[in-house]
């Protein structure tokens, strides 16, 4: 049975219907409370998810505040220009290999956390985020999905002024201000999302649709990215890959985020984020 893993007060929980179940309690102590460590449990999480109907819920989902489902990943990768439509709107050539940068883990916040707008060039980027579930090196694209614990929704919030303050551009700091990495609400195992290679992704700002696409239009697919990254370095359980954003970001339109704005991000079968700007 598939699972939805979340983070409540720094503790790993499974979500079923309207309830949450503490993973450490549900497993009788076999698994610890840390969400980043729990995501490596693999088969055990599936077993626990199958058993929740006979267990006592820890709380109602509506009564808890969800943090980032993976709060302390070792690595957080971003992928630039991974939709043809986004490359076109920025006037950029298509990359021949994945264009990788880093979002520093301290930027991660939960699915309803506020975004602290720190500049007048703060941009939104709806993204599918891959969560690695095993320690892997040199996996092939055919093997890559086996290394994926689940999927979550992400916003690669970007300070364009800082990002393009130098030549060549310096992505990592501009994308790593505190609160510039909303993720969640859950890590959803791939068997729960339908066609894992074709997921509708959408971003609205104050109710206006800005981005509307499908992950089938990724230039480098999820298996491509996992294989490429693992050919360079070891991937660890809990590592995150922000897979890229489709057309419709704010910079080409001059539509940046301002305090009071609300960013709503959805990926079919995976979940939604609602983040207010302050």
Jot down its keywords.
single chain, 278 residues, alpha+beta, Fumarylacetoacetate hydrolase, domain 2, 2 domains, four-stranded antiparallel beta sheet
The CATH superfamily of the largest domain is Fumarylacetoacetase-like, C-terminal domain
What percent of residues adopt helix (DSSP H or I)? 10-25%
The major sheet is characterized as: 11 strands, mixed
Number of domains: 2
Low-confidence stretches: none
What is the approximate shape? globular
CATH class (first level) name of the largest domain:
Alpha Beta
Distance from first to last alpha carbon: 39 Å
Strand content: 25-35%
Number of strands: 17
CATH architecture of the largest domain: Alpha-Beta Complex
Question: What is the H-and-E element order?
Answer: EEEHHHEEHEEEEEEHHEEEHEEE
Q: Indicate the structural class.
A: alpha+beta
What is the fold named in CATH at topology level of the largest domain?
Answer: Fumarylacetoacetate hydrolase, domain 2
Please, how many helices? Answer: 7
Radius of gyration: 18 Å
| Residue-averaged pLDDT | 97
């Amino acid at each position: 049975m598939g699972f939805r893993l979340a983070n409540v007060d720094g503790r790993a929980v499974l979500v079923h219907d309207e309830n949450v179940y503490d993973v450490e309690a549900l497993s009788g102590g076999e698994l610890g409370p840390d969400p980043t460590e729990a995501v490596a449990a693999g088969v055990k999480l599936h077993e626990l998810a199958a058993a929740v109907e006979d267990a006592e819920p820890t709380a109602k989902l509506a009564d808890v505040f969800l943090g980032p489902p993976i709060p302390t990943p070792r690595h957080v990768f971003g992928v630039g220009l991974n939709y043809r439509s986004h490359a076109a709107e920025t006037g950029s050539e298509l990359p021949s290999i994945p264009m990788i940068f880093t979002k520093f883990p301290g930027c991660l916040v939960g699915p309803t956390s506020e975004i602290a707008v720190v500049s007048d060039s703060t941009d939104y980027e709806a993204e599918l985020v891959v969560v690695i579930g095993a320690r892997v090196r040199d996996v092939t694209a055919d093997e890559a999905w086996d290394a994926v614990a689940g999927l979550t929704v992400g916003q690669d919030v970007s300070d364009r002024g800082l990002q393009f303050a130098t030549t060549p551009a310096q992505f990592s700091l501009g994308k790593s201000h505190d609160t510039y990495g909303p993720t969640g609400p859950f890590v959803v195992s791939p068997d729960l999302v339908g066609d894992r290679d074709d997921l509708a992704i959408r971003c609205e700002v104050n109710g206006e649709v800005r981005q509307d696409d499908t992950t089938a239009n990724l230039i480098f697919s999820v298996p491509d990215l996992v294989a490429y990254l693992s050919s360079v370095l070891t991937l660890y359980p809990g590592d995150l890959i922000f897979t890229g954003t489709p057309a419709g970001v704010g910079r080409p339109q001059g539509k940046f985020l301002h305090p009071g704005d609300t960013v709503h991000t959805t990926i079919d079968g995976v979940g939604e984020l609602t983040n207010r700007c302050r």
